[in-house]
Amino acid sequence: MKMQYKYWKVICRYGHVGRRKDISISRYLETENNFNLIDVLNIVSTMPGVKKKSIFSIVSAELITKEQYDKGKEEEKENFYLQKLMSYETRNNENTLK
């Protein structure tokens, strides 16, 4: 039996939300078919750079198609802010593990 998935586009705010020094970035998620919007918002709240306690950290979230998801993941790879954020998280985690 083939596993079924849902695909989501979530627009998140990164940076200093509330101080007008934030940037909105689309993130693309693949979840199991039984996940709902609340589950997705919980996942996003644990992502690096997303403010944990701010109700303003998520601009929108919606179900999308597999094709939109694939295109969005390619866009994520080209996003300079995400590249910088992920390289910072990797360096930070390497220093913690030593």
Please describe what this structure looks like.
There is one protein chain. The protein has helices spanning 37-45, 66-78, 80-97, and strands at 5-16, 21-32, 58-64. With 98 residues, the chain is an alpha+beta fold. The chain has one domain (5-97). A 3-stranded antiparallel β-sheet has the order 2-1-3, sandwiched between helices. Strand 1 (5-16) and strand 2 (21-32) form a beta hairpin. The longest helix is centred in the C-terminal third of the chain and has 18 residues, at 80-97. It is globular. 9% of the residues are buried. The model is unreliable at 93-98 (pLDDT under 50).
What class do helices, strands and sheet pairing give? alpha+beta
Radius of gyration equals: 15 Å
Number of strands: 3
The oligomeric status of these chains comes to single chain
The helix tally amounts to 3
Q: Give the proportion of residues in helices.
A: 40-55%
Ranges with pLDDT <50 over ≥5 residues? Answer: 93-98
- Strand content range: 25-35%
**Strand sequence of the main sheet, in spatial order?**
2-1-3
- Overall average pLDDT: 81
Topology order in helix (H) and strand (E) letters:
EEHEHH
Give the total of domains.
1
- Terminal CA distance: 43 Å
